Fold this protein.
Amino acid sequence: MTNTLPPVVSREDWLTARKTLLAKEKAATKVRDALNAERRRLPMVKVDKEYLFTGPDGKRTLAEIFEGRSQLYVHHFMWLDDQDRGCPSCTAAADQHFTPQILAELHKRDVTFVAIARAPYAKIEAYSEGRGWQFPFYSSDGTDFNYDFHATLDESKAPVEFNYKSKDELLAQGFKETDLRGDWPVNSVFLRDGDSVFHTYSAFARGLDHNVTIYNFLDLTPYGRQEGWEDSPEGWPKLFR
């Protein structure tokens, strides 16, 4: 099957169109820079609740998993209850991005990276070792951590909230009751001042897009990510609907 193709034009016409797009790309870069600057000026909230995470060396507090650094990036690693395994998307992200090289660059900038899942640590350890991962991977099993930071939706544990919207707002947006459960894509960032820990940032769903390197490649290609939600010309391939 032959895919629909972009229109063919002269080099001069292509260059005119490319320069028009370039001006918009530069404007978007400036907007992104401004957003990043505003993000650095966000206030923060002190974390008063005690959380104990389980890792290879036993129990650790939130302050302890900073490993002596002042900043902590948490990937809330999704766990699939029906399959009792890690989420394929999180697994792919870990294979591609949670590498010793990337962690070393973060460490140079006083940032510790960890993944945290709510599965018991024995399952996390077996899953991690099976893939040869070396990044810090902790279990929040037995704590409210996932529910307090809305990485896991369970109305018996905490009111449902996702991407800063209440359950009623999510239902009005088109979510179904059956959607609002289990683990969701979330990251959280914390800052440590001595023994005090502060929550500075969390992003949800497509707010994590910029962390997925493959998207940065695909967004520059003619057919893009080939996902159903994308605004693409008629006839463009859609592998993921």
Remarks:
- The helical segments are 11-39, 88-97, 100-108, 121-131, 145-148, 167-173, 213-218.
- The radius of gyration is 21 Å.
- The chain has seven helices and 14 strands.
- The longest strand covers residues 196-204.
